[in-house]
Design goal:
7% strand, single chain, mainly alpha
Length: 160
């Protein structure tokens, strides 16, 4: 099952420990564990698609550490130090000069598996179909991203 916590257009600042979206996600995860305790359900991973709101020159230098802080906090608060965390690159569908910033955000996210254990990043830079705003992936692209995320999740599960 999934524990949905997504909030479109949200800044990574709202996902930091103690911020509204982090607290809500943690609460939902704990509630899911509590209500499924009779069948011994477990949280097997986190999927993450965020970054457009922070793809600007002021925020880019802070993004890797902010994401690392979220991952470390979730793992600690859930008592799951090896919890897989799978991110996805953001869309690169806007023209320059914005495109350069989007590419820089994706470069940051694609580099994180080298420095964060149990972390993977799905590459969706090749997906160019959107809902008409040159930002948000359309259904076809989202379905493909879902397949890629599932494949990475299965890779993590097969390592257990």
């Amino acid at each position: 099952g999934l524990v949905p916590c997504a909030v479109g257009g949200s800044s990574i600042k709202l996902w930091q420990k103690g911020a509204k979206l982090y607290d809500e996600a943690l609460s939902r995860a704990k509630l899911a564990l509590q209500t499924t305790a009779p069948v011994k359900a477990r949280i097997r991973g986190v999927i993450w698609l965020q970054g457009e709101a922070n793809a600007n020159p002021q925020e880019l230098p802070l993004h890797a550490e902010r994401l690392r802080a979220i991952i470390e906090a979730l793992r600690a608060d859930l008592g799951l130090p090896d919890l897989p965390f799978i991110a996805c690159t953001i869309g690169e569908m806007q023209p320059e000069p914005r495109l350069s910033t989007l590419k820089a955000m994706n470069d940051i996210q694609l580099a994180l598996p080298k420095s964060i254990p149990h972390f993977a990043c799905v590459d969706a830079r090749d997906l160019k179909t959107h809902i008409g705003d040159n930002v948000h992936f359309d259904t076809t692209a989202q379905n493909e991203i879902g397949k890629r995320l599932a494949s990475k999740a299965l890779d993590f599960l097969s390592q257990k």
